[in-house]
Hints:
Largest sheet: none
Shape: rod-shaped
Distance between the termini: 132 Å
Helix content: 55-70%
Number of helices: 8
Structural class: mainly alpha
Strand content: under 5%
Order of helices and strands: HHHHHHHH
Amino acid sequence: GIDALRDERFMKNGNTLLTGILRYRRADGGFAHSFEADPQNPAAAPGQSNSMAGEQTLLALAALWRLQNGLSTLYDFRPEGAEEPPAPAVFSDADKAAVLSLPQELTTEQYATVTALLDRLERAEDFAEKESYRQRLTAAKDKIAALQAEINELNAAIDQLLAAGQPGVGAKPAVDALLARAGALAPYDAAQLSRLAELQNAKLRIDNRLRGYIIGVVLFGVALALAAFLFRRHRRRAKAREGD
C-alpha cells in the first residue's frame, strides 16, 4: 500500500495526512466531522464529536497501523501472510494468433502448446470470442490425446507381436497392418514407436522369405516344364528311330 506518512503526495509544509486527521480530534477523544456547518449533513454539529467521523477515523488509523506493522490491508480478510491472488490472466493477441496458426494435421509435438494455451484461456477474463477459442483448443487437445492413444496401442501391439521372437510368414497380415497404421502417423509421432525398426526388419525378412518361396516355386515349375518337354522330345525321337 501507499505510506501516507512518507509519500510526498500526502504531505504539505511538513504536515502529513495523519496530522490533518488529528486536527479533528476533540477533547472527549472523539472526532469532528467538520468545523463548519454542512447542509448536506445537518446531524453533524460543527466542531463536535461525531460517531460517523469517529468510525471513519478509526478505520483510517487501523489501516495506517497495519501498514506500518507490515500486515495486510484493512479489508483483506484472508489469513495473515497469504499470498496475493494472481492477477486475472489475459488471453493476448499473441495467444490468439498461436491458436489460429496451429496446423491442421496435429501431432503430439503440439501437446504442450495446446495445453498451455487452453490453461491460459480458462484463467483469462471473459472476452467475445472466448468460447470459440475454447472449442478450437479442446478439439485440438482431444485429437492429440487420440494420437497418443494410437501410439500407445501400436507400441503394445508391436511388443506383443515381437515377444515370441521373429514373426513367421504367417504373421505377414498382422505385420503389414501394423506398419500401415504406423505409416499413417506423422514422423514425430512415428518416432515414438520404440520397436518400429524391428517391425520393419521383420517385414523385410518375411518379404524376402516369400520372395524366395515364389522364386523356388517358379523355378520348380520351370524345371517340371523343361523335364516334360525333354521327355516328350526324347519319346518323339525314340519313335522316329523305331520307324526307321
